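question for whoever is on the cluster today: can someone run the full assembly for these? two chains, 322 residues total. i dont have access anymore since they changed the login thing
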Amino acid sequence: MKYIVKWPQKNVIYCFLSIIMVVQNTVFLQMNSLYPTVKRGFLNGISITYKMVKVIVPCYIAIEFIKHLGLIEAISTFFKPCMGIFGLPGESALGLLAGYFINLYAAIAVITPLQLSSKDMTTIALMLGIAHSLPIETGVTRQTGVNAWLMLTARVVFSLFAGIVVNLVWKLFL
Amino acid sequence: MEIIFVALKDSLVLTVKLLCIILPLTISYEFLKHRQSAIEKKHFTFFGISGKGFVPLVTGIIIGLTYGAGIIVYSLRTSNTSRKEAFLILLFLSICHAIIEDTLIFVVIGANGFVLIGFRFALAIVLTYLIYRSRLFSAQLDGFSGKD
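^ ran it for u. tokens below:
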């Protein structure tokens, strides 16, 4: 008599067992597809970082040298009139050009040692976000069959436009 | 000589910071690729961009043109999206792409992320809508598609 399990308890035990089995099943099934996915993502991340390091380190060192040699004032005064439209200091033109022609990581490596304010950083980030690494991405747009030159001009024009607008809006509201 | 070492150290610190952002992103891209086919089945239009065109659009917005190039080119070629639609998609993407990665990278070095995302989305949507509605656009490319 003692060893017979009563009906409701038996039910509960079955319930638990089935839940455990379902959980185990789903976890193991997911693990099979989870692991290669995570691994691929991880390797992609590493390869992107490797590409990044190759660009960032030389750019950073070059900018530090320019700063050390005192060329930054000359560059700043040279670019001051055109960067004044966006409310940016003259030396940020270097970062903008690096972003347009090389890629975003080069731009970051150039901007970081310049120690800009939050407003300047946001403006330049917006401009670079709209138009960056133009040689590569124009190649991509050409492959889709859309007029690449039109896209290129649209991107540059809207990047400059966004810079001007953000400068004005920031001055007015923030 | 000291400058080189200081610059080297600083640039490596910057790289590690960026690595912390990029690694989770690349892993989540891979998860997103699995879900791709689910988006493709939904039917709706968004400023003249239909469900088929939505895959390259979302890919471009999240991943960006450089790394999402394969998916974008492939899905624009295989699904017979009209030329008008492809133009709208590329126009939207030209302003608003790689929105997560770019924004986070710039936030690390001190930009305001909300302004960045908000402004780019708003500009892209307004521009795409205006071009979609403009008479010039529909007259110019009317021969290529029988839609609307």
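summary bc i know u wont read the tokens: The helical segments of chain B are 2-40, 51-62, 69-78, 83-95, 99-108, 113-133, 135-140. The CA atoms of residues 99 and 117 of chain B lie 7 Å apart.
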